[in-house]
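Hi everyone,

Forwarding the result from last night's run.
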Amino acid sequence: MTTAHQHPLQKILESRIAIIDGAMGTTIRTYGMTEADIRGERFRNATKDLKNNGDLFSLTQPQMIGDIHRRFLEAGADIIETNTFGATSITQSEFFVDDPREHGGRKDPAFYQKVIDDDFLNKLAWEINEQSARQCREWADRVANQTGRQRFVAGAIGPLTVSLSNSPDADDAGFRVVTFDQVKAAYAHQVRALIAGGVDLLLVETIFDSLNAKAALVAIREVFDQDGLAAKNKELPVMISAAVGRGGETLISAQTTEAFWNAVKHMKPLSVGLNCSLGPDLMYPFLSELSEKADVAISCYPNAGLPNPLSETGFDLGPADMARYLGDFARAGLINIAGGCCGNTPEHIAAIAKALEGLPPRKLETAYAVEAYALQGESGR
C-alpha cells in the first residue's frame, strides 16, 4: 500500500537486502516455559491449557518476550514482528470458550458472532496486540539508538484457526463456520490495536487461505479509511506473505503463486513473499515465479527445513544451512527481505544476516516510481 512519500524501509530495500526476524514460538521453547509460567497469576484459573497460546506470553512473561526481540535485533534483524500471530478474538476463543462440539453442538456463524461480541475476548485481543507492539517498539528503538541503524516493527497478523474457503462438513460443502464480515471484524480490531501500539508496518503472513487474507486486507483498508489515516497520509505499509505446499499452491484455497499475487496486488503492498510451510530447498521454484511476476519487493522467510523432533529446534536445518540457502536466493536476484520462520532462532538469523551482507537486493520495479511520476504530473496541471 503506497503513500505519496517514500517509507524509510523502501529506501533500504532499494539499496540492500533487509533482514526480518525468526520464529517466536521456536525461540520461546528454548526458555523452558511451563503451563504455570504462561498462566501467571492473571490466568491461574483458566479452564483450558494455555501453553500453546504463545501470544499470552506478551502479558504474563514480558521480560522473556523483550529478551527475544533484543536477541533478534542484535542478530541483525531490521524488522521484528509483534508476538500477535493469533491475537484475534476468534483465535483466542480456542483457549477461553467452551467448544460446543463437546456437547453435541457445532461451531457456526452464530457461535462466532458471540465470540466477535464477547467483551472479555475483545479486551484481551486488544491488550495482547497493543502491549506486544509497545514491547517491540521499545526494543527496536533502543537497539536503533545504540547502533545508529533504524529498526522497524511489523504487526504480525496470522491466518486464524478457521477457514472461509473450505467447509469442515463433508456432507455440506456450502457450510462455513464463520462469515467474511466476522473475520473482517476480528482483523479490524487487531489492526487498530497494533496501530495504537506503534507498529511501523502491517504484516499479513502465513496465508494458507486466500479468502481469510482478503478479509484481513479489506479490514486494513477500512481501518485506514474510517480512522482518517488515508486523509492524513498516515497509512502504514503492508507486507503480505503466503504459505504454500509442495505444488506451490496456498494450502487451503489452492491458489497458484501467480494467482495469489493477482488476488492481492490491488493493495499495492510494500512487499509480497513466501514463508513457513516449506524449507528453503523446496521453496525456490515458487519464490522464483513470484519474483518474476510481482512488481514489489519480495520477502522470503522459510522454515528451517522439515520438522524433526530429535533436533534441538524441532527442525532439520541449522544456522549454516539456512545461511547457505538464503545466500543462493540472493545471488539469484530473488529477494529483498530475508529471514526465517519455524525452527529459526536468533542464531539462524545472525548467520543469514552475515551471509547476505554485501549481496545486492533484487532489482525493484515498483509502483513507487510510477506514483511519484504521476504526482508530479498532477502538480503541473
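The beta strands are 18-19, 79-81, 152-157, 201-207, 238-242, 271-276, 297-302, 337-338.

Cheers,
N.
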